[in-house]
Amino acid sequence: MLKLIPATDRHHAAPVAWLNSYFLFSFADYYDPGNVHFGPLRVFNDDTVQGSAGFPQHPHSEMEIVTLVLEGELTHEDTMGNRRTITKGEVQRMTAGTGLAHSEKNETDKPVHLYQLWFLPNQKSLAPSYEQKDVNFLDTKNELVPLVSGQKVLEDVVYMNSNSTVYWCNLREGKTVSFKTFPIRNTFVYVTEGKLYVNGVDIGPNDQIRATDEHVLEIQASMDAQFILIDLPGSEANY
């Protein structure tokens, strides 16, 4: 079953002048009891942070936090002693575990566009940890590229403590990629730009597909497209 969620159904938040954000799930002051999570995917925020601004230090615990930078750069600093800049095409994973605090700031004069995803961890009380990798995912063509995963069969990806995998794809018009899944898994697709045809459903920029009980997704670009695909366990016992 495929559920299409159009871009217009995202929750728009601009609580301060420097932040423009779209929440795909309940977050902060937005709460919809029917839209809290999809499997272990608890948060998906599509954020643009203006220059010389950002999030001051704030705490987290018991969450796997993944940040993908699509444009610009974001400087991260945390109570583990990390101070790193995440640039375009890089992937960051932070295991909040038993607790930490961090800040995220745009120290340049140009906006930074990023996706931040939170996953419920597959274990409680993990030690906080951090990983960052230049995957250069924005330059790939016509293939699903794994970026971060807790499925140990995949190599050369950022590791997270979740039985899930985040993929990126740049798909040229007329090209098709197939993603084989199982009825016990869920699949989430979010379009960054362009248009796709997914198992008979047309989706455009910032639209979502949430797929359950499928065996395969056939994804064709009806125009040049960029999208993120997330493979997720369907039951809490497999998170």
Automatic annotation (TrEMBL):
InterPro entries per record: Pirin, Pirin_N_dom, Quercetinase_C, RmlC-like_jellyroll, RmlC_Cupin_sf
Start and end residues of each Quercetin 2,3-dioxygenase C-terminal cupin domain: 155-232
CDD domains the record matches: cupin_Yhhw_N (cd02910)
SUPFAM superfamilies: RmlC-like cupins
Pirin N-terminal domain location: 16-118
Family of this protein: Belongs to the pirin family.
Protein name per Swiss-Prot or TrEMBL: Pirin family protein
Lineage: Bacteria, Pseudomonadati, Bacteroidota, Cytophagia, Cytophagales
